[in-house]
Structure formats: C-alpha cells, structure tokens
Design goal:
The chain has five helices and seven strands, in the order αββαβααββαββ. Helix content is about 35%, strand content about 30%. It has a single domain, classed as 2-Layer Sandwich (Threonyl-tRNA Synthetase, Chain A, domain 2), CATH 3.30.980. The mean pLDDT is about 95. Bound molecules: zinc ion (ZN) (2 copies).
Length: about 180
C-alpha cells in the first residue's frame, strides 16, 4: 500500500468513529449498528425512526469537526465480556457483537473517545492519529434507510455516509 492509500484508510476509519461519537451526542441513547469504511469515505448505521435530512447532516458534520477539535482522550480499552455487556446495555447490535467475540476471545477490544466506548480492534487509537485529520476535509453527504435482520425480524436503521476531500482514489478493499 502506498502512503496515500494508508492515509486515506486511516482517515476513513477514524472518521467512522468520530461520526458515531458525534451522533451519540446529538441523539443520546440512539441504537448503534454497523460502521466503517466505504470505497471513498465512511459510514455508520443508527436506529433512527426518521432518516436525517440535509440540514441535520450538515449540523452533524459540524459536530464531527467539533469532536476533532476538542477531544482529549482517544485510547485502546479492553473489556471483559461482563464489562462489555454492561457497557453496551440497551444496544442490541453491539450485544450481538460482544457475544460473537466472547466466544473466541477473553477480552473485547474497544476504543474510548472522550468517555464514549465502542468495539473496534484497530491499531490506530492514538490522539496523534485523530489530530492528523483535518476537521474541514470531510462532509456527510447521504442518509438512507437500511434494515438489520435479527432472528427473523427487521430493525430499521438509517445509514449516514460521508466523503473525504479531496476524494481519495476508490479503494477496492473497502466494500462500497
Ligand atoms: Zn477503530
Ligand atoms: Zn480499503
């Protein structure tokens, strides 16, 4: 991988975390779903009844920039399965992830960003990695409904997606 590709990957990945943190502050208690990279950007799913409009995406983009400008803590946290079940109480998608990981591992590897904890095994949980992101070189561009299927029932989520600027070359390893 070239340096540019590595930098784009880190940015897309970290921005998916920043999106989740900003959304949890905007919509306290919102159900969390999948999140991660797209070919040229990042996304995260939220259990919102209504898909956010353009104005809300713009406000949430500003919230993300604020998280990047003001954060103090970004670090690796390892939870026991019991601690993780407590940490993700009320988050059905997260609890499923915890159960799946706990079958294989003794610890659930997470990040903490200013008091918010989420599951992720990435190796870039350091303040300097977040500081390397420019707070104005991304934008939330789209929101559309998705469904999470669990034991035969469908749960409505809204997928919020963003893009980096300037746009990196589309990446083949990150599914669109
Ligand atoms: Zn991560
Ligand atoms: Zn990729």
């Amino acid at each position: 991988m070239t340096d540019a590709v590595i930098t784009a990957h880190k940015a897309k990945h970290l921005l998916s975390h920043v999106l989740v943190v900003a959304a949890v502050r905007r919509w306290p208690g919102v159900a969390l779903g999948e999140s991660g990279e797209t070919a040229t950007g990042f996304y995260a799913d939220f259990g919102l009844v209504r898909v956010p409009g353009a104005g809300e995406l713009s406000a949430l983009t500003d919230d993300m920039a604020r998280v990047l400008r003001n954060f103090r803590t970004f670090r690796d946290v390892k939870l026991t399965p019991t601690e993780a079940l407590r940490a993700f109480h009320g988050q059905p998608w997260k609890l499923k992830q915890v159960a799946a990981i706990a079958e294989l591992e003794a610890r659930i590897v997470c990040y903490e960003l200013d008091g918010f904890i989420d599951i992720c095994e990435c190796a870039i949980k350091e303040p300097r990695e977040l500081r390397a992101l420019h707070p104005e070189k991304f934008l939330l561009t789209e929101a559309h409904p998705v469904a999470w299927s669990d034991r035969g029932s469908l749960h409505p989520y809204a997928r919020i997606s963003g893009e980096l600027f300037p746009a990196p070359p589309p990446c083949e390893c990150c599914s669109p």
